[in-house]
């Protein structure tokens, strides 16, 4: 199983409580009267922005008629949700939504990602990441650049360990040529990328869409990630970035469309060995 993530635990708790209320047809007024909450506070609980006390949760679990096993599961989720993930230490650097993505990523089972001009963040070297961050945020202090690079490297720990993240990445051939950080930085980045593909053949899949590809919806797409979880209680989510906006996507239809776009992109890309050989060739210059 993936590591426990407080973000994922809180999210699952909210989903299961919201789903159960809908199944039983209990209106919000009944709950707020029973627990002594306002409607706004209850909405924050169901949408994983607030966490019930153990006493209030036990009262709610009885009202919702959960059996003993489910009650213990939900109480355990609450205990996990109380913890602080490593990403919470960086709240001064990142938006609440981006920190949530890091928490979701930490507890995910698999991620499917697409990048057009860049190597995906989970596969970047520190020098490559530093060059990107320094150019994107030219006016920030060096210590903040260091912290942001540190976060990017910390996220990559999910690619190794006892239950590593399953990562399926699609990139354009252009990402292998874009001179992020200069020739030497890019060359080392490509060598590292090829090494990771060879080191983790069971969990890291990377396909390169060659310049010879003639069509495909993904070619005009922005950066996106489809995030999936081991728990059958949790739906897939997506994260999408453009120049002017970024955000979590929870719409089932939109997530499905992105997943289908990614699946189509895989068919347009070179196979695993061809992608690896192309990366090695560009790394050698």
TrEMBL record:
Lineage top rank: taxon: Bacteria
PROSITE patterns hit by this protein: HTH_CROC1
A Pfam match: HTH_31
GO molecular-function term, one example from the UniProt record: DNA binding
InterPro entries registered for this protein in UniProt: Cro/C1-type_HTH, DUF5753, Lambda_DNA-bd_dom_sf
Gene3D superfamilies to which the protein is assigned, alphabetical: lambda repressor-like DNA-binding domains
Domain HTH cro/C1-type, residue spans: 17-71
SMART domains per the UniProt record, alphabetical: HTH_XRE
Protein name: Helix-turn-helix domain-containing protein
Originating organism: Haloechinothrix alba
């Amino acid at each position: 199983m993936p590591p426990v993530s407080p973000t994922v635990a809180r999210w699952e708790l909210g989903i299961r409580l919201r789903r159960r209320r809908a199944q039983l047809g209990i209106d919000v007024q009944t709950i707020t009267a029973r627990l002594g909450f306002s409607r706004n506070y209850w909405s924050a609980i169901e949408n994983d922005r607030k966490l019930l006390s153990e006493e209030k949760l036990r009262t709610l679990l009885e009202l919702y008629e959960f059996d003993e096993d489910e009650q213990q599961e939900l109480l355990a989720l609450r205990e996990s949700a109380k913890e602080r993930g490593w990403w919470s230490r960086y709240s001064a650097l990142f938006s609440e939504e981006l920190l949530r993505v890091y928490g979701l990523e930490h507890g995910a089972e698999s991620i499917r990602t697409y990048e057009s001009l860049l190597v995906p963040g989970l596969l970047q070297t520190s020098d490559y990441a530093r060059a990107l961050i320094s150019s994107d945020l030219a006016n920030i202090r060096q210590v903040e650049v260091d912290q942001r690079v540190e976060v990017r490297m910390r996220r990559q720990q999910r690619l190794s360990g006892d239950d590593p993240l399953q990562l399926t990445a699609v990139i354009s051939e252009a990402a292998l040529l874009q001179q992020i950080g200069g020739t030497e930085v890019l060359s080392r980045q490509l060598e590292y990328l090829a090494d990771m593909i060879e080191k983790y053949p069971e969990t890291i899949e990377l396909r390169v869409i060659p310049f010879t590809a003639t069509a495909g919806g993904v070619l005009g797409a922005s950066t996106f990630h489809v995030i999936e979880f081991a728990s059958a209680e949790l739906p897939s989510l997506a994260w999408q970035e453009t120049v002017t906006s970024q955000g979590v996507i929870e719409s089932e239809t939109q997530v499905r469309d992105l997943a289908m776009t990614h699946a189509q992109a895989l068919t347009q890309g070179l196979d695993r060995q061809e992608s690896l050989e192309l990366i090695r060739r560009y790394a050698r210059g």
